[in-house]
């Protein structure tokens, strides 16, 4: 069975306060997007990669592809206004209905081989898989008056990361049902599968290094993680 990675890079990066979207910020001489593509391109179980790009930056992504000569990038597509729309654009581009898809945020460049392998392995038993880590913070829900409403049991809480991985048929159906219901703003793919009760969603352990680069401080943390991993690998 083929395993396709969809790399979502259509965000505008407003929260990072940068002039360019954060997927183009540089870590050790390479854009974050390049670091992320490389992880999937080099993984021996990945068959193909689809990049969903911010439409204003398609040429920049194409330049990156020419420069790096990746082996597995199949397509670059213009993304949507929301992450959910971008994700559906990527999903719709895969015609091989009996395949697995791994949907990953471009701004998580520290995804590692082991997590990718564990996700693909889990897809032989489950139709949906989410990567997540334990929460070191206690998390509670508030009401509209900014008053604490309920405490959640930290032992049962997980912080969601990506990739989120699916049998293509399952995630396609989830998105089609969401479109039918006029939903466009979902911030992840598993929550659609959950909403429509389409599959059990198995949790694969993520990593504290698999951060989503969102705010300016995250770029500094990303540089530290990069340096630490480089030292560990030499
Ligand atoms: O905005 P958020 O933090 O949810 O973004 C997560 C990932 O989704 C990022 O890699 C971003 O580029 C991507 N995204 C997208 N299309 C959008 C919004 C976000 O591909 N319209």
Structure description:
The chain has helices at residues 32-41, 58-68, 83-92, 113-122, 168-180, 190-195, 216-232; strands at residues 3-9, 26-27, 30-31, 48-53, 73-78, 100-105, 128-134, 140-142, 148-151, 158-167, 201-205. The protein is an alpha/beta fold. It has a single domain (3-232), classed as Spore Coat Polysaccharide Biosynthesis Protein SpsA, Chain A (Alpha-Beta Complex). The strands form 3 sheets. It has a 7-stranded mixed beta sheet, sandwiched between helices. Strands 2-3 form a two-stranded antiparallel ribbon. It has a two-stranded antiparallel ribbon with strand order 8-9. Strand 4, helix 2 and strand 5 form a beta-alpha-beta unit. The longest helix has 17 residues, at 216-232. The mean pLDDT is 96.
Give me the CATH architecture, please: Alpha-Beta Complex
The main sheet comes to:
7 strands, mixed
Q: Number of helical runs?
A: 7
CATH class equals: Alpha Beta
Number of structurally distinct domains: 1
- The end-to-end span amounts to 34 Å
Q: Write out the strand line-up for the largest beta sheet, numbering strands in chain order.
A: 5-4-1-6-10-7-11
Number of strands: 11
Task: Compute the average pLDDT.
Answer: 96
CATH homologous superfamily descriptor? Spore Coat Polysaccharide Biosynthesis Protein SpsA, Chain A
How does the overall form come out from the CA principal axes? Answer: globular
CATH topology name? Spore Coat Polysaccharide Biosynthesis Protein SpsA, Chain A
The share of residues in helices is 25-40%
Could you say which small molecules are bound to this protein?
cytidine-5'-monophosphate
Q: What percent strand?
A: 15-25%
